[in-house]
UniProtKB/TrEMBL annotation:
<comment type="similarity">
    <text>Belongs to the ATP-dependent AMP-binding enzyme family.</text>
</comment>
<keyword id="KW-0547">Nucleotide-binding</keyword>
<keyword id="KW-1003">Cell membrane</keyword>
<dbReference type="InterPro" id="IPR045851">
    <property type="entry name" value="AMP-bd_C_sf"/>
</dbReference>
<dbReference type="InterPro" id="IPR042099">
    <property type="entry name" value="ANL_N_sf"/>
</dbReference>
<keyword id="KW-0472">Membrane</keyword>
<dbReference type="GO" id="GO:0044539">
    <property type="term" value="P:long-chain fatty acid import into cell"/>
</dbReference>
<dbReference type="GO" id="GO:0005324">
    <property type="term" value="F:long-chain fatty acid transmembrane transporter activity"/>
</dbReference>
<keyword id="KW-0732">Signal</keyword>
<dbReference type="GO" id="GO:0004467">
    <property type="term" value="F:long-chain fatty acid-CoA ligase activity"/>
</dbReference>
<dbReference type="GO" id="GO:0005886">
    <property type="term" value="C:plasma membrane"/>
</dbReference>
<dbReference type="InterPro" id="IPR020845">
    <property type="entry name" value="AMP-binding_CS"/>
</dbReference>
<keyword id="KW-0812">Transmembrane</keyword>
<dbReference type="Pfam" id="PF13193">
    <property type="entry name" value="AMP-binding_C"/>
</dbReference>
<keyword id="KW-0445">Lipid transport</keyword>
<dbReference type="Pfam" id="PF00501">
    <property type="entry name" value="AMP-binding"/>
</dbReference>
<keyword id="KW-0813">Transport</keyword>
């Protein structure tokens, strides 16, 4: 019997051993396990050991090592530490901050972002990382949902000071203190901060100031697009900060690497994966105000960059730059990011050399993520035993038309078959929690899916469609529902629709994302129904969307419809509209295109359509 059962498992054993990815699977699992054990140790440590403490240990170990390079200046570990002490002391006296308070940061990429956040952490405060593209209603909403009583804004040329001044009456009404990183400001109700930081002592602060902070305490609030329209504040605990900081480690990043961050620090990618990952490894960071395709490789050569971050757009922009003889002359060996298409991925490697692409799948607030630790192109990871055991997940059948999971006669969800696209859901457990959104129980509840595989179970609904192929590789397919991604940002369709319906001629708007040849993600398009007897007003619509929406969220195409198709639950149907796209030869409704030069929406002609597809018109 033993012999026969041994023979029976032999094919499985041989298949596993001869799997070309077997060694990589084992290596990844061991690495992940090692960091899982480290996290468990940190959780038991008294007093609580945060990523800030990890930084302070690095200051002792390598005080003079460069931590940040920025626009020709360098800051060592000890300098950043001292600077953050000054910030903490200035905020302690000026803003009377104490443990447990939340402060909103409205800043662009700059070294002061790092030391202001660290100064707050030294006081036991959480930081809400505001997207610097948001204005007016969105800005006020993001501010109020995290419960912050203080906002710190930059005073540079990027219009952040003006954006704060615009909403100042409301902030004053709500008793919120506004601080500007400037030495002077004559506006009543705005306090300056730079002089106070400059004059403050750089002596270390007592760890007692943050003594009651634990793993479960909020460390950050990071904003994700809200399906109800306005962004949602994902609560990031100190435990999640640690978990995200390990992504670099499991991607093979070493302490002697140099990391290039050109993604915004208000995003999880730039802040959590990039900055806190760099602290965990003890690296040098090259920080860029914003991504520049023309300067990218020059920067990498100048600073001996070995690890880069990307979003799909980054790769495409780099592949679109003119070819140069020296474009393989760099030291970059690892690229960490997400959202790159297979064709761009291949082209990138062919042009710029053998770089290990570590494509991720994750969500700021989610409880399940993947990382492609192999050299397989076009996938976000692999199914492996340990990962599935620690973070139970499954793919379930999903009805795209109804935008809901398919359920059987018992009311349970149905698992998607191997090779079939399904909705990814992650089981909510002690080890894979879903903390939810600050001040928004309704949205938190919306992401919880009950009775998935058995009555009473609880899963996190990622809202993403993935598939697992025959070789156990995981591929990202699409996003469902009310958000789409463009220029690396999530766009909430209902927020855009709300803005459009404020235009005098528009009665209803149905917003969705459409694919454009040669571009990542989907660009915004809206089907609109006009008020009776009204004509479409291109210039008014243009000024409405440009005043209230960041560039990436503005619908570039408008389709005029006489009526909308609705689902049984009175939701507007989008699937057929998405498939129709914006080709004037195929769509018989009037179509318009947002023309920034003309400052209006112009009729979308065959000529414009061809120019977009030939990339003669920049989107």
């Amino acid at each position: 019997h033993v012999f026969l059962s041994g023979l029976a498992i032999l094919p499985v054993l041989l298949k596993t051993l001869f799997d070309p990815y077997f060694v990589q699977d084992c290596s990844y699992m061991l690495n992940a396990l090692k960091h899982g054990i480290r996290l468990a140790k940190y959780k038991k440590k008294k007093p609580f050991y945060s990523i800030l403490d990890c930084f302070l240990d690095a200051v002792k170990k390598q005080p003079n090592k460069t931590f940040l390079h920025f626009e020709g200046t360098s800051h060592s570990y000890v300098e950043v530490d001292k600077q953050s002490n000054k910030v903490a002391r200035a905020l302690q006296t000026r803003a009377n901050l104490k443990q447990g308070d939340t402060v909103a940061l409205f800043l662009g990429n700059d070294p002061c972002y790092v030391w202001i956040w660290m100064g707050l952490a030294k006081l036991g405060c959480a930081a809400a990382l505001l997207n610097f593209n948001i204005r007016s209603k969105s800005l006020l909403h993001c501010f109020s949902c995290c419960g912050a009583k203080v906002i710190i804004a930059a005073a540079g040329k990027d219009g952040l000071r003006e954006a704060v001044e615009e909403v100042l009456p409301t902030l004053k009404q709500q008793g919120i203190s506004v601080y500007l990183l400037s030495e002077e400001c004559s506006v009543d109700g705005i306090h300056t901060l730079s002089e106070h930081i400059y004059q403050a002592s750089d002596e270390p602060l007592s760890a007692d100031l943050r003594a009651s902070i634990t793993f479960k305490s909020p460390a950050l609030y990071i904003y994700t697009s809200g399906t109800t329209g306005l962004p949602k504040a994902a609560l990031v605990t100190h435990e999640r900060v640690w978990a995200a900081s390990f992504i670099q480690a499991v991607s093979g990043v070493r302490s002697d690497d140099v990391l290039y961050i050109n993604l915004p620090l208000y995003h999880s990618a730039g802040f959590l994966v990039g900055l806190t990952g760099a602290i965990e490894r003890g690296l040098t960071v090259v920080l860029k105000r914003k991504f520049s395709a023309s300067q990218f490789w020059e920067d990498c050569r100048k600073h001996n960059v070995t690890v880069m971050q990307y979003i799909g757009e980054t790769m495409r922009y780099l592949c679109n730059t003119p070819k140069k003889d020296n474009e393989r002359d760099h030291k970059v060996r690892i690229a960490i990011g997400n959202g790159v298409r297979s064709d761009i991925w291949t082209e990138f490697l062919n042009r710029f050399g053998d770089i290990a692409i570590r494509e991720l799948y994750a969500a700021t607030e989610g409880n399940i993520g993947f990382i492609n630790y192999t050299s397989k192109i076009g996938v976000v990871g692999r199914v492996n035993f340990l990962h599935r055991r620690m973070f139970p997940y499954t793919l379930i059948k999903f009805d795209i038309e109804k935008e809901e999971p398919v359920r059987n006669s018992n009311g349970l969800c149905i698992k998607a078959a191997k090779g079939e696209t399904g909705l990814l859901v992650g089981k909510i457990t002690k080890y894979s929690p879903f903390v939810g959104y600050a001040g928004n129980n309704q949205q938190t509840e919306k992401k919880r899916l009950r009775d998935v595989l058995q009555k009473g179970d609880l899963y996190f609904n990622t809202g993403d469609l993935l598939r697992i192929d025959e070789q156990n590789f995981v591929q990202f397919q699409d996003r469902v529902g009310d958000t789409f991604r463009w220029k690396g940002e999530n766009v909430a369709t209902t927020e855009v629709a709300d803005i459009l319906t404020m235009v005098d001629c528009i009665e209803e708007a149905n917003v969705y994302g459409v694919k454009v040849e040669g571009h990542e993600g989907r660009i915004g398009m809206a089907a609109v129904k006009l008020k009776e007897g009204k004509e479409f007003e291109g210039a008014n619509t243009f000024s409405q969307v440009t005043n209230y929406l960041p560039t990436y969220a503005r619908p570039r195409f408008i389709r005029i419809q006489s009526s909308f198709e609705m689902t049984g639950t009175f939701k507007m149907k989008k699937v057929s509209l998405v498939e129709d796209g914006f080709n004037p030869a195929a769509v018989h409704d009037p179509l318009y295109f947002l023309d920034p030069a003309m400052k209006t929406y112009v009729p979308l002609t065959e000529e414009i359509y061809t120019s977009i597809n030939n990339r003669e018109i920049k989107l």
